[in-house]
Design brief:
The chain is α/β, with parallel strands linked by helices. It has 13 helices and eight strands. It has helices at 2-12, 15-23, 25-34, 40-52, 69-88, 108-124, 139-152, 168-178, 200-217, 228-241, 258-266, 282-291, 293-305; strands spanning 56-61, 94-97, 128-131, 157-162, 181-185, 222-224, 249-253, 271-277. It binds flavin-adenine dinucleotide. Flavin-adenine dinucleotide (FAD) binds at residues 132-133, 160, 162, 185-189, 224-227, 251-253, 256-257, 274, 288, 291-292, 295.
Length: 306
């Protein structure tokens, strides 16, 4: 499983493979399943449709690892506009941002300074900003920046913890003590065993322990998984502990297990869908492919057919 993920991520990190994808109509069909479109209007359309089906959304303008200050500032302006447009469209303003899109590779100060205006905009429209968690090289710096901005905007910003990381429990306990909102995920990057659990069993066990901690003491946690066993574990624990379904939410990715998304919403659970959009979809797309062997096989066939 881990080997498959590593192989797909390694093959994908090659300019030629990316060009094949951008040029192939069939591959674009698969991209469209996971990405709501290239424009904000398309993303707002997808969000409005999900809203009609009783779900909330978080919008993610795709992009990461910007190399210039100008690009990081452009991302800030885009995110501010997205929050305002969501409010105007009658949607709850909620976005997910990556610090490497806000200039983290160019320095912590730049990234922190860039988060400020986004949180001010979120505060003005009563919105919320989730800082996504990226590869382990960024974890400590992301947590530090999060802690400092959370002190200024406690109601407008939350963080992500990846259960595959050995440090995850410390991060969850710290976030609970801070009163911060946590999104719990398994983790999507290829990580060395020194920092991450290598087996699915350990990652899932960690996820269950952390979801219990978050349901017990967390501040409106988000349980972000498509894994039926972990969804059942969440529901079961909440039921046993008398925790009502409005004290937490489930989150899933756009295009992944759509029927399950509707089913949970219909049953009265809070369901938020992560809606990615934009032209820079390639790295996000390859992580989705690496997660699931069936997707990877489909993609490999496309490459060999050419
Ligand atoms: C809302 C949300 C936000 C996230 N934010 C982050 C983040 O900030 N940082 C980060 O590292 N990761 C993030 N992730 C990704 C996460 O870490 C996992 O990589 C991803 O959710 C797959 O793990 P899983 O828990 O769904 O379990 P898995 O065991 O991977 O999947 C369980 C089942 O779900 C279905 N499934 C899962 N993925 C796919 C797919 N791509 N295509 C089709 N079916 C699929 C399959 O049926 C699979 O058997 C996020 C995930 C979600 C849902």
């Amino acid at each position: 499983m881990n080997l498959m993920r590593r192989s797909v991520l390694a093959i994908a990190d090659n300019g030629r493979v990316e060009r094949v994808f951008r040029g192939s109509r069939l591959a674009r069909g698969l991209v469209n399943r996971f990405v709501a479109g290239e424009t904000l209007d398309q993303a707002l359309g997808a969000a409005a449709r999900l809203h009609t089906s009783g779900m909330t959304t978080t919008l993610d303008l795709l992009g990461e690892n910007v190399a210039t200050v100008d690009a990081s500032r452009a991302a800030v302006a885009s995110y501010v506009a997205i929050l305002q447009r969501m409010r105007e469209a009658g949607l709850e303003p909620n976005i997910s941002v990556k610090l490497t899109m806000l200039g983290l590779d160019l320095g912590d100060t730049l990234a922190r300074d860039n988060v400020g205006p986004i949180l001010e905009a979120a505060n003005a429209v009563d919105g919320f900003v989730r800082i996504d968690m990226e590869g382990s090289d960024y974890t400590a710096r992301t947590m530090d920046i999060f802690t400092s901005v959370h002190n200024r905007f406690p109601n407008n910003v939350g963080i992500v913890v990846q259960s595959y990381l050995r440090r995850a429990e410390d991060d969850v306990r710290h976030a609970i003590a801070q009163g911060a909102r946590v999104r719990l995920v398994k983790g999507a990057y290829a990580e060395p065993e020194t920092v991450a659990y290598p087996t699915r069993g350990e990652i899932d066990e960690s996820f269950v322990a952390l979801l219990e901690l978050l349901l017990d003491g967390g501040h409106y946690p988000a349980i972000a998984t498509h894994d039926p066993a972990l969804i059942r574990a969440t529901q079961g624990y909440a039921l046993r502990m008398g925790i009502p379904p409005d004290r937490y939410e489930f989150q899933m990715l756009y295009g992944v297990r759509r029927e399950e998304q509707s089913r949970l919403a219909t049953e009265g659970y809070r369901m938020r869908v992560y809606v990615p959009f934009g032209t820079e979809w390639y790295p996000y797309f390859t992580r989705r492919i690496a997660e699931r062997p069936a997707n990877a096989l489909f993609v490999l066939r496309q490459l060999f057919d050419r």
